[in-house]
Amino acid sequence: MKKVxxxxxxxxxxxxxxxxxxxxxxxxxxxxxxVRANNLYYPSNGWEPxxxxxxxxxxxxxxRPNETWGRLVWLGQILQCIVSGKLWKSDPTIxxxxxxxxxxxxxxxxxSYATLPNGINKQKCEGST
Length: 129
Fold this sequence. Notes:
This protein has five helices and two strands. It has 129 residues and is mainly α. Strands 1-2 form a two-stranded antiparallel sheet. Helix 2 packs across helix 3 (52-62) and helix 2 packs across helix 4 (68-82). The longest helix has 24 residues, at 14-37.
């Protein structure tokens, strides 16, 4: 494993890692802020601690690490929260349907838009995006 890691490290472009993780950092922070601002998605007692949104918000709030390897690990953690299906397949779906994936073994922690009551609640939700 050390040999593989060493070969990868030799070919790694720190500026590309910085650029990609910076974009993810901005987008994920904005996503979490939008969700927090909408009380339909952010209950007053907070999210369930192990839900995707809770984990994603915690990772986002902590910010990107300074070193390249830490940023790669950070990006991997972000992707685990936002990708539906298998992360390393050829066509992973990021934020499927513009929401966090919902799987039986890892709850998104957010109500589905389809389950919101009609009327004012859906209008409030639509206005926050």
